[in-house]
Every structure is written in C-alpha cells, then in structure tokens.
Amino acid sequence: MARELFIFLDSTRQNNARLDNELEPGSAHGRWVLCNNGKPLGTLIKGPLSSAAKAARDARVIVIVPGEDVVVAEVSLPGQNKQRLLAALPFALEEQLIDDVSDLHFVLGPRYGNNQYVVAVVNRECMQRWSDICDELGLRVDVMLPDTLALSTSIGTWTILLEDTRSVVRTGVHAGFAVDHSNLNQLLSTTISDAEGVTPERINIIDCRDINVNTNDFSLDSGIELHVNNFENDSLIWLAEHFDYEAPVNLLFGEFSRKEKVKGHLRKWYPAAMLLAAVLFLNVTTTVVNYVSLSNESQKLTAEMEQLYKRTFPQAKRIVNAPAQMQQKLNALQSRTGNSQSSLSAMLTQIAPILRSTPGLIIKSLRYQNGRIDIESDLRNFAALNQLEKALSERAGMKVEIKSASQNKDKVVSRLEIRRPGS
C-alpha cells in the first residue's frame, strides 16, 4: 500500500451552513490523518480541511462520511445490463425511501447470490456538498464511503465503534447503521430480531470514549459473545488502521465519478471549442478556396504564357516550361546581338503585359532589330488597334508607329513598329 490520506467530513448540515454563508473552502471542518502502510504518520488533525490538501500530494485520498446520511440496502434486480439496472433501481427502492427518488443519488454495488445487488442511497444535495468541498479544496478523491462500511468485518462477527455521541455498527458485508448512543441498544436488539435466525456469534466493541462501555449496558441474547476493546485514540485512527479495502460501494459513482467530473469540466469548454473549431474550419476553407483560385489563375497565366511563346517563336515544336524556354531563347538572342538583348528584354518586360491584356490580339510575328520591335498582328477592329497604340504610348512610354493596317473580313491586319523614345 502507498501513502493514504483518510478524511472524515463533519456533519453535512454544519458544512452546508458554512458554504451557504460563502466562507472560504478551507472553513469546511473535519478530521484527517496521513498513513503509510496502514500506520499513522504523525497525529490526527481536527478543524479546517484547507491544510489536508497539502498532505494529499502523492497520497491516495479516502473520504469517510457519516453513516447517518447514507442508506445501505440489498435489492433483487433481474438481468445484468448496467443501464437497465440503474434505471430500475429507484423504483425497486421507492417504497423504502422517504425522499423523492429524483432527489437521491443511487450507487449500484456488486452482484452476489441470485440477482442480489448492494445499493447505497444518499441525498443528491448532500452528495453534491461533499463533492464541492473536495473540489474546492483541490482534493483528488479516490474513494468516498460511509463509516458503516469502512469498519472491518468478518463472517459471524458484528463490529460496533463507539464515539463520543454516536455509534457506528456494521452488521455484515453489505449492511450497517449509525445511531446515537441512547438508541443503540434498542436498534441493535431489533436488528438481531430481524436477522431471521442469522444472529452474530460475536460482537466486537471498539470504545473510543473517555468513559468506557459496560457490557451490562447491552441487553442482548446471552449466546452472543461481547468483546470490548478500549481504544485510547480518535475513531478515525482505528478506521484507518482497520480499513475495509473490500468495501462494496464507492459513493463516487455515476455523475459523481472522477470520469464524469472530467467530462463535466470538459463540457464547460464545449462552446469555446466549437467556436474555435468553426474559426479553424473557416480559416482552412478560406485557405483552400484561395489556393484553388490561385491555382486556377496560375494555370490560366501559364496557358497565356505558352500562347505568347508560340506566337513569339512559331518555329518552336515542343513547350515544356514556357518561362524557362523563353529565357533560353532570349539568352540565345543575347549571344547573337550582344548588349541589344538588354534592350529587348527591357522592352518586352514593359509591353508584354499590355499585349497580353489586349482582347482579341493575335501576334503573328515579332522581330527585333536595333532597338525596334516590329509586330505583325490580327485585331478585332480599328478601335482595338488605336487602343493598343495608345496603351503602348501612355503606359509603356514607347513610340508607336502603325506601318500598315487593313480590314480583312472580320479582323484588322496590322504591323506596328515600337521603339524607345529617342531611339
């Protein structure tokens, strides 16, 4: 066993009052002791539980609650489907409970015998209070159970733990109760009478009070052996040293289980997560749309570049990479014409966008010589020719001369001479 922190929460009503008054979480009171291999490390501490959170580090946390607030019962339920059993459980116990079943938290324990199940029932508000106290203190609770089931037990033996004002009794593996001292004897006798012949052979009495018990105070069957152990320490110390690790129920069940609590905390972030997902989706969608649009534009520009290349170099048979092949052609021209290449490149850089954006322009030939470019082309009409001349003059800053222009059916055949100013 590793280090374990045992905590006993005080009466729920006391802690409720403290929480209702909006005091700090540390104002919740109780008792706690840190153990190692079942042996206490130091003394038991009573009072505010705020300091218990520090001791909980690297320790298994076991919270023990008053048995008066938890009903432990046995119920017969057919079938083994967990969801159906949980749905049927409130109705199976409805007649035995005072509170409305909708206000109760049901814990389904293990199955034994012929479809018999151990069940623990606690008021939901009470359970929520315990859970809130632990959460606000930052306690990561592993087990929460009533002190009636924390008592050790054995076949044929009942155990009674006597505290200052109350008694905790475990009458079997799946049963027990807590009661004030004044009603202990009567309730104990009634429980033995209702045991239908299965009476205990022995009752172990652990007396943690300053004034020890007198066995004559118990008017029980003479056949039952009473064994008294005077324990000169707090009852929580005895529970920690004799804790029943095989206890049949853990109140941290269903909505109060650690798994469901994590889900509950995550559910608080669902709106933010959904908003983030929507933003990411919109961002990804926009990126994809932009990519597709740019890809289509790139393909369009590539096609136009290939057409321009074919018009500029009609003798070319195969086009693999128009920009690279255009550069190769220009480099070849440079090797033949020397520095004139720089003039040709510069002029093409200026006039190419205008030529490409002219609707209906078909370049039939392009020749360069001595700083002048001659272009033979087909255009839709004379207006388009005039617009091209104007654009080359104003936007590219070139001197343009229309050498010839004639109407040929539905097109205008023209020859333009383009040169830089001053050339």
SSE blueprint:
Blueprint: E1 3-9, H1 12-20, E2 29-36, E3 39-40, E4 45-48, H2 52-55, E5 60-65, E6 70-76, H3 82-93, E7 104-112, E8 116-123, H4 124-136, E9 141-146, H5 147-150, E10 157-162, E11 166-172, E12 175-180, H6 181-193, E13 202-207, E14 225-230, H7 235-241, H8 258-268, H9 270-312, H10 322-337, H11 340-357, E15 362-369, E16 372-379, H12 382-394, E17 399-408, E18 411-419
Parallel strand pairs: 1-5, 5-9, 10-13, 13-14
Antiparallel strand pairs: 1-2, 2-3, 2-4, 6-8, 7-8, 10-11, 11-12, 15-16, 16-18, 17-18
Helix pairs in contact: 1-4, 9-10, 10-11
Offer a quick outline of the entry.
This protein is α+β, with helices and mostly antiparallel strands and 423 residues long. Helices cover 39% and strands 29% of the residues.
Please tag this protein with its features.
Gyrase A, domain 2, rod-shaped, 5-stranded mixed beta sheet, 3 domains, Nucleotidyltransferase, domain 5, about 425 residues, alpha+beta, about 40% helix
Would you write up a description of this structure?
This protein is rod-shaped. Strand 17 (about 400-410) and strand 18 (about 410-420) form a beta hairpin. The strands form four sheets. Strands 1, 2, 3, 4, 5 and 9 form a six-stranded mixed beta sheet that branches. A five-stranded mixed beta sheet has the order 12-11-10-13-14. It contains twelve helices and 18 strands. Helix 1 (about 10-20) crosses helix 4 and helix 10 packs antiparallel against helix 11. Mean pLDDT is about 80; it is low at about 15-25. With about 425 residues, the chain is α+β, with helices and mostly antiparallel strands. The chain folds into three domains: about 5-180 and about 230-270, Nucleotidyltransferase, domain 5, CATH 3.30.420; about 270-320; about 340-423, General secretion pathway protein M, EpsM (Gyrase A, domain 2), CATH 3.30.1360.100. The protein has helices at about 10-20, 50-55, 80-95, 125-135, 145-150, 180-195, 235-240, 260-270, 270-310, 320-335, 340-355, 380-395, and strands spanning about 5-10, 30-35, 40, 45-50, 60-65, 70-75, 105-110, 115-125, 140-145, 155-160, 165-170, 175-180, 200-205, 225-230, 360-370, 370-380, 400-410, 410-420.
